[in-house]
Amino acid sequence: MNLASDRVLAVFVVGVIGVLIPGLQPQLLGALASEGRLSVSALGTLATVELLAMGIAAGGAGFVLPVSRLRAIAGAALLVTGGIDLLTPLLGIGALFGARIIAGLGEGVLIWIAIGFIIRTDRPERWSGIYLAAQTLAQFALASVIGYVAAGSAVGFTALGIVTLAGLLALPRLPRAYTPLEAGHEAGGTPSARGLIALGGVVAYLAFIVAVWVYVEPLGFRHGIAAATIHIVAPLSLAMQVLGASAATLLAGRLPARATIMVVGLINLALLAIMAAPPSATAFVAATALFGFLWLFALPFQIPIMIAADQSRRAALLIGGAQLTGSSLGPLLAGLLIGDQDVIRVLWFGAFCAVMGIAAMVGAASLRAGMARSLNEAA
């Protein structure tokens, strides 16, 4: 599908707004916790329900929403989500959960619009990389503003609401409709058993990443690091994520995917050890920054692993849903594990998920490749 540059820009503006909240959760939810409006365990649960709602909407919107009315759908999603963002600082704990679930559904619809464009292009992997870098750059910019002001949850959610409502300005340039997908691009049936194992690995890997990310600020405070230093962790990590996405765009296809995922996993385990017992505040900040770089650097390498595990590409087509599912389950399970105990437990949980995720992805892909070689030799 070919669109004029202004229409592509409008699609990306809408799609990027839909995915701002995951990069801002440590600041916004951390502020709610520091203000006494949210317990540490509830922080993980609230992060989970919003991400899960995003995943449900992003994956299920195509079954209930027509691609022939994109402007109306995007307008409604922006209005609802932006309005809830503005109201969030005024809500009590009960209403807070319901409101963020509704916001997550709206955000998921906005993501669905961006994905709908990407999968219709001739080079979806290229556009996926651009989308990844754009969303991270936007998260970094907004997180930097919020971190600079450092005035609590009210300012943070208000800024998010204003940016979301500003997305309405892109509606006149948004495509009115997408063309139907060609039959050859439709995925029928379920992935193979190896594909499902690889997808499970993606779920576990993203559970590790997002669980640790959501608890970065409480971890820093647990080590007695000054609030002024903690406030730079999120924007710095997001800046490194931009660099990681850019590096992955350049190197994906040039580095062996399985070896890259394993090396990244080993480095991440070392970073978790530093976060557990940082020799200094600088070491903690540096570890979280490198953690952010590796987060987005690793994601593009998961796609060739999915294809190696399931050459029908059905697993690869489901990778976005698997990533969102892992992103939502990670904080939930970590919150249940931590309860009112030491927040350091999230690092043990993260290490377990990282090892299991990488083993599942690499194992499924290696098994598939090994079977293919055996069949070729037999022939």
Automatic annotation (TrEMBL):
It comes from the Bacteria. It comes from Sphingomonas oligophenolica. Coiled coil: none annotated. This is MFS transporter. The keyword Transmembrane helix applies. InterPro entries: MFS_trans_sf. The keyword DNA-binding does not apply. The chain crosses the membrane at residues 7-25, 45-65, 72-91, 97-118, 195-216, 228-252, 259-277, 283-303, 315-338, 344-367. Keywords: Membrane, Transmembrane, Transmembrane helix.
